[in-house]
Structures are given as structure tokens and as C-alpha cells.
Specification:
Helix content is about 25%, strand content about 35%. It has helices at about 1-25, 30-40, 65-75, 90-95, 125, 265-280, 295-300, 320-325, 345-355, and strands spanning about 75-85, 100, 105-115, 120-125, 130-135, 140-150, 155-160, 180-185, 195-205, 220-225, 235-240, 245-250, 260-265, 285, 290-295, 310-315, 330-335, 340, 360-365, 370-375, 380.
């Protein structure tokens, strides 16, 4: 009797369990528990945010594929070999990373083909002491090069080789570049030609006080793309292979890349290089002022309240464009042609890109009131 009782109890339990399973699965085969969880907690089953009303942007499958940009750029990048004969060796070595070879000193750098008819942009410090310059293109053709002109105050130089139908880079608008944007640096670091490295824009408008001239224009694009000696003069390009800047410097305690590199923005490069090609030199415009970035001491001295950005006028040159236009000492420049000015590098770049005779509409804070002044820039004296 006990065995029969146990058997009937087990059978009844099995039937109850089977009925429960059928109820849970249902006729559609979908779990009722899954239905309940899915209806009550959808966030557990979706990788997108709970607020799904805002559609996620489409991300192309090749969004981080730089192969096309690298091919386009490396074809337009050259290796620059700058040789120095009969100079004081200690002086020349101090100018750049030089090596002794067969009685002469040589500097290694990079350049980018700017026009199909043989104009090449590089850094001034790459070629400044050179007696003989040889340019090697990506297809290994070697050409003697001449210096067309240079602008030491921006560390740019233009070379010319006798060649036609060369591949060259189109320029991007460096004003549109943003931190976080992907970029490539291309050149010949440590003698390794056609080297491509990738990174992002880390910041814009950096002033490193690298150029010794007080009128130097420094407003660098900062990136974390690896740049080393030999990259100088080579291009920084965007993900489409368009020229975004000329690689110029690295922040380093060892002389090698340690995380940050700096490039002259393409809009400034184009302004200077186009002048050099057309006129043989950069025709610089001047405002006739001494200026500095706003400091805490300035804010207190001028009672500027919650102002934290801008450029202070420290001195006015007699007869200069600023004096004629009505600018005064202690004016705080906060905008030029509608573009906000945060600090000195931004303003010096804007002035550096302007041409003699251009009119700039300057917005200033004077006695805690905003007003606009029209400044007609004049040409710098040769």
C-alpha cells in the first residue's frame, strides 16, 4: 500500500509540474515570465539608453579606417635633407638634429607638396642653415630644392623643385577642427620615411613660446599623434587626408615623443605660403599694439567682475592702426569680426591671417561697457 501511495503521489506531482510548464510557455512558445520581464524592464534587453525617442546616429563601418587618407597623404609627403658646408659645427648642431657625414653636417626633416608644380612647405628650422637641400618624393625621385622664401616668426619655409604633375594635398579649414577629432601625422621620424601615426586633436590655440621673436605667431593645434625628430615640416591631416597643419614641435623632456605634439594650423599656413609664392615674402599686417591674455590681476585692477577671457591692450604704438581706430590702453578685446577671443594666441592668429588694408571689427570692454571699433590694418615695415 505504501508503494502504491508513493507512486500515485509522484504521478500527481509530475502532472502538476507539466501543467505549470505549459502555462509558463504558453501556446506561442514564449515564456510568460519573459513577457513580464520584457514588459516591465526593457532597459535590461537594449544596449541603447532608456530614452530611445532620440535616434542614435549611424556610424559607418569604416569610421576609423585611415587607409585612404594615409595613401593620399604619403604620396604628397617628401623627405627633406638639408646639408650645411663650411659652418661652425657647434652652431649648426644647435639649430636642429644634425649628424656628421663626410665632412658636412645634415638635417633631416619632412615637407608636404603644396602645389602640383613643385612648391613644398616645410619648417623654417629644418632648412634655415642649409647650403644644399635635397627633396625625396614618395616614389623615391630625388630633386635639388631652392628656398623660395621663409617666415621665421611662424617657422615656415617654402621650397621649389623642378617637377610637374605632383600629387598635393587639399587644405582643410583649421577653424572647423575640434578637440577629439581624429588626425594623422605623416613624415620621416628618426629617418623612417613615409611613417603614419594617428591620434586626436587634444586642444587648439596653444602658445608654447617656442619662437624667440616677440612678434612670433603661435597658435598651435595640439595632438597626441606620435611625432619625433624628422617629422618637422610634415603634414597633420584629417581623416579624409586634407591638410590640417604643419607639424612643428613636441613637448618632451627626452627629445622624443612623450604624448603631445604641435602643428601650425592650415589656415595660417595658407595665408603665409600663398604670399611667399606670389611675392617672395610674407606681407604681414599689424594692428600697432602690445597685448596680453587677461589675468586675475587684470580682472581686479580693471574691475571686470566675472570676466575670465579676453586680451588686454597694454600699449598703443603712435600712429598705428589701433591708435587711428580709437583703441585705448586697458581695453579688453573680447571679439573680432563676431568671433569670440579667449586669449592671446587666438587674436595673434587672426591678425596674422589678415592682409594689410583689411578692416577688423573689434569688440572691447571699456569701463565695463561693450563697444565696437573698426581697425584698418597696415603693412609691417620691411
Amino acid at each position: 500500500m505504501k508503494i502504491r501511495s508513493h507512486f500515485l503521489s509522484a504521478l500527481a506531482g509530475g502532472l502538476i509540474a507539466a501543467l505549470f510548464v505549459l502555462w509558463m510557455v504558453g501556446p506561442s512558445g514564449e515564456s510568460a515570465l519573459a513577457k513580464t520581464v520584457s514588459n516591465r524592464t526593457p532597459a535590461l534587453y537594449w544596449s541603447q539608453p532608456v530614452d530611445s525617442e532620440k535616434p542614435l546616429p549611424d556610424v559607418p563601418a569604416d569610421a576609423i579606417d585611415f587607409r585612404q587618407a594615409a595613401r593620399r597623404t604619403t604620396a604628397a609627403v617628401v623627405h627633406v635633407d638639408a646639408r650645411v658646408d663650411g659652418r661652425d659645427r657647434a652652431t649648426v648642431k644647435a639649430l636642429f638634429d644634425r649628424e656628421e657625414n663626410s665632412g658636412s653636417l645634415g638635417g633631416q626633416g619632412s615637407g608636404v607638396i603644396y602645389r602640383a608644380d613643385g612648391y613644398i612647405v616645410t619648417n623654417y628650422h629644418v632648412v634655415e642653415a642649409a647650403d644644399n637641400i635635397t627633396v625625396t618624393t614618395a616614389d623615391r625621385h630625388r630633386y635639388p630644392a631652392e628656398i623660395v622664401g621663409a617666415e621665421p616668426k611662424t617657422d615656415l619655409a617654402v621650397l621649389k623643385i623642378e617637377a610637374d604633375d605632383l600629387p598635393y594635398l587639399k587644405a582643410a579649414d583649421s577653424d572647423e577642427a575640434e578637440p577629439g577629432q581624429w588626425v594623422l601625422a605623416v613624415g620621416s621620424p628618426l629617418g623612417l620615411t613615409s611613417t603614419v601615426t594617428a591620434g586626436i586633436i587634444s586642444a587648439k590655440g596653444r602658445n608654447l613660446s617656442l619662437l624667440r621673436d616677440p612678434d612670433a605667431i603661435e597658435s598651435f593645434i595640439q595632438t597626441d599623434a606620435a611625432v619625433n625628430p624628422g617629422n618637422s615640416g610634415g603634414p597633420l591631416v584629417d581623416a579624409e587626408g586634407r591638410l590640417l597643419g604643419i607639424n612643428t614641435a613636441i613637448a618632451s623632456r627626452t627629445g622624443l615623443f612623450q604624448g603631445y605634439s604641435f602643428a601650425i594650423p592650415s589656415n595660417l599656413v595658407r595665408r603665409i605660403v600663398d604670399d611667399i609664392i606670389e611675392y617672395g615674402s610674407f606681407r604681414r599686417a599689424l594692428m600697432g599694439v602690445e597685448i596680453s591674455s587677461l589675468t586675475g590681476a587684470d580682472i581686479e585692477r580693471l574691475a571686470l567682475g566675472n570676466r575670465s577671457e579676453g586680451v588686454v591692450v597694454d600699449a598703443i604704438f603712435p600712429g598705428g592702426a589701433a591708435e587711428v581706430g580709437g583703441l585705448l590702453v586697458d581695453d579688453l578685446i573680447i571679439a573680432v569680426d563676431g568671433r569670440n577671443i579667449r586669449d592671446l594666441p587666438e587674436l595673434t592668429e587672426i591678425i596674422g591671417r589678415a592682409r594689410p588694408g583689411d578692416r577688423l571689427v573689434i569688440e572691447v570692454i571699456r569701463n565695463n561697457k561693450s563697444q565696437e571699433l573698426a581697425i584698418d590694418l597696415v603693412a609691417a615695415e620691411k
